[in-house]
Amino acid sequence: EIFMGGAAGGSKSFTGCLWQIMRRLKYPGSRGFLARARLKNLKESTLLTFFEVCGKLGLKLNRDYTYNFIMGVIRFRNGSEEYLKDLFFYPSDPEYVSLGSTEYTDGFIDEMPEITEQAYQIIRSRMRYKLDEFGLIPKIAMGSNPCKTFIYKEFYKKWIEKKLESYKAYIFAGVYDNPFISDHYIENLKKLDPINKARLLEGNWEYDDDPTRLFEYDAIVDLFTNNAETGQKYCIVDVAGRGRDRTIVMIWSNWYVTKIYNLDNISSQELDEILQKHKIPRSKCAIDEDGVGFGLVKDMPGVKGFINNSKPIIKKKETERESVQHNYKNLKAQCWFELANYVNSGLIGVYRNIPVDFKKLLMEDLEQIKQKNPDKDTPLSILSKEEIKQNIGRSTDIGDAMMMRMFFEVNKGGLVFAFV
């Protein structure tokens, strides 16, 4: 597994395409692939680089190779083939059945941040075509600018810590390593904002030191290996509707997430069945009461309604009689800050066999939670759902379900719940 990571303009795509072409020419009858999350983007970027490299090698279309744009296959005169693959995660195909059972000799994935860990694992498992015949081992190459997806943990961080497995390699590709790069390109990179300049010009993987982020990245990664305290069971429901993409039902054993349901929607009967299955009383079930969830709360006496914009919960100090209201804008902000304290302290864990796509979504959700206007003397608040959706194109459904678990923590021990 060869990962090329670093600055923009470091010739990662060019190198990956060159490697694929040389392999196809060296091993007649071999089969490789070029992949990105979206086939459309692949054809508009990586494929053009592929053809550019062919030209530099003196290879001509319809003489040395053919391109079937309908099938997405490039065929060389010696019988070798190069397939164009779409690795996007489609909810209708969570197991990537659409990839089929085609075997490959090797392959190159461009723009790795677009790819889920599950997609990578599945396509990697297909590296076995004619390997014994050619005397080869499975090889897959990847390219990416610095990002904070699974490749940060699996390649860059292990490389920095000198813990990278022997079958993996990390190659840093800097913009100044490319002798053919345009000076104008570099000048444009220098004009970027500080974070993107660090990523794309300097190739800095530790680019994101945003002090407004509530969750530490290492603490997010640790969620999936923490042995958190178990005990009382809870059920949290984030209902679809009003901008939410799906209904998320999250089952907890005290501070350990044991199950996540991802549903189109849910009825009171279906939720009751889940509660009975996990032996959770209604009093330990919190439902997002905004919008569609209001009806579910109304139909299920005993469950707790969670209203995001309600006032923060008022705590009574043990040493004082008067109530002291914490300086949060609303209940939602209060629970997010409380959750961040628990996550950053390593007190929360998530079940080991969580689907990789749920894991990716949860990690992205928590990375998006930032304090809003930290320099202003106003109650603590976070970015709005609309602002977050502008950043990632969706709502933070799984993260919201995790945040709502804190309702039971802040609302225990003689606390008062107040509404706006």
TrEMBL record:
Ranges for domain Phage terminase large subunit N-terminal come to 3-197
* InterPro entries with a match to the protein in the record: P-loop_NTPase, Terminase_L_N
The record's section on Pfam families has: Terminase_3
- UniProt protein name: Phage terminase large subunit N-terminal domain-containing protein
